[in-house]
């Protein structure tokens, strides 16, 4: 009896070993442990994430939990010689090579809500262009100087879209032109010039809280309220150290941020107090990531704290012949000032990609 029991136990253990071996033999990616599955899915781009979510219920839950809705901006580079353009996705470190013959002779002016504002200095033609859908929205012609800045309030598909630029500055007067979407012509407004005499040009324009904030190269901040047709120069200047070789200005949920770059020092980050209109230096961005470019910048409240992409200043750089980005942690010491060099403002700009990238032919041009 004892021997029979032992033999039965041996048969059971053999069956268990065989069944476990068979499971290992026929194990697929569907049977991956949850932590390993999440690690794999976290490295997928949005397009592949959506495809993977259709595999099974377990994969669907993992994909949805890791899907990034608020994507980071992309960087678009403009060629000086032809109609070739390069889009760079910093979150996936991937490049896309595109051609837009319809933009031949145009240079970029501004970017917002996934649209580019382009200008042709030969024909004075202005148009909105979406590089992801190739949609074009032409605007009335307007002559612009090489260093003249222009901005718009929101996407041209909105009826509240407003274009803004300062066209002329004399000793006594300043001339502003605005254009509402679907209007027949530009509107001209003339105001008394209260800028300081050492004014040269406007470097940054940001739209926030229904107002255009305009920063001069000397640090003066002026604002234009289109609803009141009101222009005012604010008192005081931001604390700017000697040796600055560039600046960036952006907004996030109504807050205005200003970054000064230096040749041999770390960048300084300033925030505008909207009650006293005074600039205060910040040692942290409070979890924000600012994607900085000369003509317009983007800001995002990043959720990727574990990856380190938060509380950062993201800058475009050249490493050899490769275009890429570097991240400067605002609350840490860094040598980014030795890596970053001031570039031609019309060489690149940040732009927000649409959420429906999987429906676009963009991925056929990956390099």
UniProtKB/TrEMBL annotation:
The cross-references to InterPro entries, in alphabetical order and at most eight, read: F-box-like_dom_sf, F-box_dom, Gal_Oxase/kelch_b-propeller, KIB1-4_b-propeller
Q: Where is the F-box domain?
A: 30-68
* Protein origin, superkingdom: Eukaryota
Name all KIB1-4 beta-propeller domain ranges.
87-336
Which SUPFAM superfamilies does the entry mention?
Answer: F-box domain, Galactose oxidase, central domain
Mark out the compositionally biased spans (Basic residues): 1-18
Region span, Disordered: 1-24
Name the record gives this protein:
Galactose oxidase/kelch beta-propeller
